[in-house]
Amino acid sequence: MTWAFAPPALVQFCAGHFSTTEDFKGNVEPIAFHPNARFTGQGLNFGPEPMPVDPHWCCVEKPWCPTPFVVVTNVATVSGPLSGWAGRVWFIWTPFGLIYIDDSPQWVA
Fold it and tell me: Most buried of the four, 13, 67, 80, 85, by CB within 10 Å?
């Protein structure tokens, strides 16, 4: 069941958490959301391929489920010139949505 319901739950979770950001003046700006992105590289070179051209973006790789109810995916987000994160994230899937467990960052800005 997890493999069937986790992908839409992940898209809903990330789209809700990474939908807007604020610029230096406090103006709210949208974040472009890219589900099912392909990730390559390691360390500072880890990220989606191809890299989005949007000024603010969030890319999420298609999730996989190593065991029942556990959801793993790679995520990268840039919400400003010096604000971003990329790495692997683990969740528990429930019928009510995803619960964040842990992450393993590749880079943080």
Answer: 13
Q: Which residues fall within 8 angstroms of residue 62, CB to CB, at 6 or more apart? A: 7, 35, 36, 73
Q: What is the pTM of this model?
A: 0.87
Q: Give strand pairing partners of 39.
A: 48
CA–CA gap between residue 77 and residue 54 (Å, rounded): 11
Q: Reduce the DSSP state of residue 56 to 3 states and report it.
A: coil
CA distance 62 to 59: 10
Beta bridge partners of 61: 37
Please, are residues 76 and 59 in contact by the beta-carbon 8 Å criterion? yes
Return the DSSP state at 18: T
Query: Is-contact 91 99, C-beta < 8 A?
Result: yes
Rounded-to-integer distance, Cα 69 and Cα 51, Å? 30
33, 14 in Cβ contact below 8 A? Answer: yes
Residue 62 pLDDT: 92
